[in-house]
Write a structure and sequence with these properties.
33% strand, 12 strands, disordered C terminus, 4-stranded mixed β-sheet, alpha/beta, 6-stranded mixed β-sheet, single chain, elongated
Length: 228
């Protein structure tokens, strides 16, 4: 989130806001995607963000700005998304599949206090789906694991328990694993209504993070079919 200009989502509207001076004077951490903030409204211009409210969960990454890799012990962490209930770890059932990478994301998620849910996408392109699911469950016993296809709708209905009113979900995964198609499937037709899909954060060239916030529960239709 830009420290100078922020987009504040209210229940029925959006307003623009700027950080109050104390964020700069006291070097306070600015708000990130998913944060709840207290604001001072201004009918003639941008609101002022006065305070970042307590975070329930945070996803952080090392900030390497100004640091060489050889001094990794001196790296500081920066928060990139906050206040999510679940983390959907999306990986495709093709050459992207790596149980070690999945296990690492699951470990990071558990450290944040959220529930990890592994989404094995592109099941329609895999010949050994059940085996991959069992392998993933074996290395990530604290995560829920589902193989799905956003193209055929296979197993999408199994995600319904997580897509409930007033819940937030962080979706993480490498480029090309089908996150965009998955999001389009979740947001398509009468499947669900999303109050906001907050901007994708590119944590690196290989990882992106999306936050979705639900304003109502999902009602899946039997034999759900989706388009490409």
């Amino acid at each position: 989130m830009n420290q100078l200009n922020s987009l504040i989502l209210e229940p029925v509207s959006e307003i623009k806001g700027k950080l109050k001076g104390k964020f700069y004077n006291l070097r306070l951490e600015p708000p990130v995607v998913g944060d709840y903030v207290s604001v001072i409204t201004n009918e003639y211009g941008d609101a002022l963000i006065n305070e970042v409210l307590r975070r329930t969960t945070v996803f952080k990454r090392p900030n390497r700005n100004g640091h060489a890799e050889g001094y990794v012990k001196n790296l500081i962490e920066e928060t990139i998304v906050a206040n999510y209930d679940y983390v959907f770890i999306v990986t495709s059932l093709n050459q992207d599949y790596s149980e070690n990478r999945i296990a690492r994301y699951v470990s990071i998620t558990l450290q944040t206090g959220a529930k990890p849910v592994v989404i094995l996408s592109k099941a329609d392109l895999c010949d050994d789906v059940d085996l991959k699911v069992e392998i993933t469950k074996a290395v990530c016993d604290k995560a829920d694991v589902f193989a799905i296809s956003s193209v055929t709708g296979f197993s999408i209905e199994n995600l319904q328990p997580y897509l409930q009113e007033n819940k937030s979900i962080a979706i993480v995964g490498s480029s090309g694993v089908g996150k965009s198609t998955f999001l389009n499937t979740l947001n398509g037709g009468e499947l669900m209504k999303v109050s906001s899909i907050l901007p994708i954060y590119s944590a690196s060239a290989n990882l992106t993070i999306v936050l979705i916030q639900m304003n109502r529960a999902v009602q899946f239709l039997p034999l759900l079919k989706t388009e490409h």
